[in-house]
Amino acid sequence: MPTHVGHPAGNAAIAHIFIGHRRQLLHIATRILGCASQAEDVVHDAYIKLFFHTPDGPWLHEVSYVCRVVRNLALDGYRRQKFERRLFASDFVEADTPLDTNSPDRIASMRERERCLRDAMRALPPRTRDALTQYYFYDQSQRNIATRLGISPAMVSCILQDAREALGALPLP
User: Fold this and answer.
1) What keywords is this UniProt entry annotated with (predicted)?
2) Residue 144 is part of which domain span?
3) Within a domain: residue 90?
4) Which end of the chain has fewer CB atoms < 10 Å from its terminal CB, N or C?
């Protein structure tokens, strides 16, 4: 539980920003997390964080600062989800009986997944496909990709997020 409450004028400004820009804040969090209910939680957490820990200063009236707080909390949540999925997926596989990787059903399923991924990759815009390939298959940093493509690292981040969303919607057999 927070140990102190922020400045009353600051709290009113925070409330005003969250009320006036709620849709924008939810959009930021939903785009990162891919889930509206988790986005609601992130926006709520950001409000509580800023309400109880409001330092004095000119940032208080900056919507961009609040957007940044929401974005950072959403990214933390996304990373936590990703880590938990990897953690629980490995526990699940270890607890199960060994998979027969040579069974006809398993081979057919893997080929279908590969086909879906290839088709989805081909459907991506060339710059997006290039950035995705460089980042995930050749371990290039976003900064290197940005330099090579002549765009900002922030734009590379947006491109990769769009690609993850597009590929994350793949139907898996």
Assistant:
1) Sigma factor, Transcription, Transcription regulation
2) 102-168
3) no
4) N
